[in-house]
Amino acid sequence: MDVILVIAVTWLFFLVLAVALLRSAGRAEREAELRLREARTRPPATERRRRTMTTVVVIAALPFAGATVGADDADAQSCRGARSAPGASAPTVTLCLINRERRARGLSPLGTNARLARAAHRHAADMVARAYFSHFSPSGSSFVDRLRRVGYARQCAWSGGETLAWGSGTQRSPASRVTGWMHSSPHRAILLNPTFREAGIGIVAGSPGNGSNAATYVGEFGRRRC
Question: Do the Cβ atoms of 166 and 215 come closer than 8 Å?
């Protein structure tokens, strides 16, 4: 009788132990499955850091295309000097025209950003000085490199776009170049991008081909989220 009791107690002990092990294994399996699901739906830390610094870069170049300015193009009357040869106020006038186009479509106007303006002016001057017309300099410097050098594309999440243009004679005025941009789908998309909040316009006398009576335009557009 005592032997039977010992055997029964022993079996009961092993049965309880087996049930406990099975429960523990099941719980561990469920936790592992949950962690796997989270890993599938949540990017790793390096990817999350990369997303916070994502840049959306859109660029377009418009050479002298001979686009004419109609009477209703950009309604330049309210942006004084829009149809004149570009002077010291030409960057402000150009942004005024761009903002008129944005307001007409219910978009927020762009503010002036000194860093973007500095990058735009430097690139326009470099294209005229080294006789090239491109978003990449002869040394390979890019749009992103330019914004990094002026401190715009650093540490914060940002998006940006760049437009280029040049014109001579009557086609060098701010109204003519904005009209040209608006008549080109890639440029129009940048000027009317609803996510952009600020811009910098650079205008330099001369053309990439060293033509006289000409002007070269660079528009830098962006938004930073710090």
Answer: yes
